[in-house]
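$ fold --in a.seq
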Amino acid sequence: MSTSSSPLQKQRFEALSDFRYTLRSFLRFSEDAAREEGITALQYQLLLHTQGFPGRDWASIGELAERLQAQPHGVVALVSRCEEAGLVVRKPSAVDRRQVEVHLLPAGRRKLARLATEHAGQLATLAEVVRLASSLRD
């Protein structure tokens, strides 16, 4: 029984390995960049996701939980830590008083802008690896 892979399958494994390595490198870069900015990687992601919905500059706790793939109660605690750090503010929704909107404060906007700029080059590298890996599909 042969344990060797076909050349195409080997190329796919190499591309997948390269993708996983580049993705992990990107995540590590992001974690380090956030830490250097004085916040955690999760706090950076929360700041980013408040700005990630077209047509508005806020996100609900439920939307943030979905984007962060976290439980709503954990996101509430994260928002509280960001509020204490002066990065975000909670506001009741004008449309649905049961909903809480999370808005960036000026300090949060500045941190997000600096981190997003730092991430641009890393994203370009990641996008190229994704493009190469996806070119090996069936």
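$ fold --in b.seq
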Amino acid sequence: MSLQDFDPTLYLVSDAVLCGPRGVVETVRQAVAGGVTCVQVRAKDLSAAECLALLIEVADAVGGLVPVIVDDRVDVYLAARHRGAAVHGVHVGQSDLPVESVRALVGREAIVGWSANTVEHLDVAGRLPPGTVDYLGVGVIRATTTKPDHPIPLGIEGFERLRRLTALPCVAIGGIHEGDLAALRRAGATGAAVVSALCAAKDPRAAAVSLRREWDHAA
């Protein structure tokens, strides 16, 4: 799968606590069957070895149908690639490794996402060499318990103001649920990253179908 195949329309960010007994792997499998187009494995509480094992399990479960990205852990991404797993990139935040260094480590073919939530972040992104970042994760849209240290919520209007300041694809994230996707698409979002709307859903496949329908009908 190449960078040209990257489609962040409905971007699932995993949360083991919200997935509950069903688990991350099965939640991902069901959500992809319902229309999720990209999966990010976020496992901040796991050791490197545990995160690697989970990332490989998710990649195997997805079977190459959609890109699989790991949050923060460049080392885990590289280890998974070394093991032959079908993983496709990393997403890093403002407090992680400098994104220029991340690109140098993972190579040109990997997908690299970067979190941005201020005008200053977008100014920095605009000065990066072309190809350093493939998309920006812009948020949070509203307060969310899945990221306790989140920045001040932007709301959809705040997202749109920031999105207008960059030519990079912007994926909205943070407290997004059904009913938000149409407005976000109209605000210029390239996609919507969701956590609890899928991980906590009783039926992740049905929830994904509903979210994709809302996005598609907003065209």
